[in-house]
Design a protein that fits this description.
This protein is of the alpha/beta class. It has one domain: Beta-carbonic Anhydrase, Chain A (3-Layer(aba) Sandwich), CATH 3.40.1050. The protein has 9 helices and 10 strands. Strands 1, 2, 3, 4, 5, 8, 9 and 10 form an 8-stranded mixed beta sheet that branches. The protein has a two-stranded antiparallel ribbon with strand order 6-7. The longest helix has 25 residues.
Length: 266
């Protein structure tokens, strides 16, 4: 996608250490407000509006990710949710095809997917303060951090991989580890694994999302003039009192057959 102009340090009055770190680790990040404004302005050229557009999200079930959904919902109303642990689209082709069937007459869909990562006030990546008055830090994304530790341990032969789940009790975690396993060496060799982790998660998710869109569009009742815009990137969560950020990494437009029409720029 095209270049994204600006820097976090110029767009927010938050902690300098935090903003500098966002610019360093996730260059090209936009505030949620800027992101929604640019996306809605771009998609308006393709007939997207607040009445006939169905918003679909695939973000982590962590409550800290909800502001992104709310910011998009201010333009496109409530979202259809496909995401689970770490933002993977665990609803799969079935959920996507169901979502497409919910698109208003003559309308289109916008799918936003992203893993998330925290950056705290001191500029540390992978942790965040979640609530006002709470000085403690917690991992962000907790599920992804746990999965990364497991896959690296498997890669270094310190522990065996999980067996395929026989019950739904923790199936998402097992499949999350499985999806991240091809990136184990990359995480193990990185000098900054908490920065590398969301990029690896995004790469894993992009492949899955693209396959779902291509398979889920075919044979649906989606109108011939309808489209599916797919925005992928990394959500960046910050401490209370600061805006969240989003690093857009891909923005694509598909037709009702699941064929990519073009790459969009912000």
């Amino acid at each position: 996608m095209g270049a994204v102009v600006g820097s976090a340090a110029l767009r927010d009055k938050g902690s300098k250490a935090m903003l500098d770190r966002i610019d360093e680790a996730f260059p090209g990040s936009l505030t949620n407000k800027e992101l929604v404004s640019r996306v809605s302005e771009k998609l308006a050229k393709y007939g997207y509006d607040g009445k006939t557009t169905l918003l679909c999200t695939s973000v982590c079930c962590d409550e800290i990710t909800r502001p992104l959904e709310s910011d998009f919902a201010a333009v496109y109303r409530e979202s259809y949710r496909m995401g689970g642990l770490a933002g993977f689209p665990w609803g799969g082709i079935t959920a996507f095809a169901s979502m497409v069937a919910h698109i208003p007459d003559g309308g289109s869909a916008l799918l936003v997917y992203a893993p998330h990562v925290g950056v705290d006030a001191a500029g540390y990546v992978g942790t965040v303060t979640r609530r006002h008055g709470d000085s403690s830090q917690s991992p962000c994304c907790d599920a992804a951090v746990g999965a990364s530790r497991h896959v690296v341990s498997v890669w270094t032969k310190d522990e065996p991989p999980f067996d395929a789940p026989s019950t739904p009790h923790d199936a998402q975690h097992v499949y999350l580890c499985d999806a991240l396993m091809p990136y184990a060496a990359r995480l193990d060799e990185s000098s900054e694994p908490m920065v590398e982790l969301p990029y690896a998660l995004y790469d894993a998710q992009k492949e899955i999302v693209t396959n779902i869109v291509q398979a889920g569009c075919g044979g649906t009742i989606m109108a011939a003039e309808g489209k599916v815009a797919v925005l992928g990137g990394i959500q960046i969560n910050t401490p209370p009192g600061h805006t969240d950020y989003f690093l857009p990494l891909s923005f694509e437009l598909f037709n009702p057959k699941g064929e990519k029409l073009e790459d969009l720029t912000l």
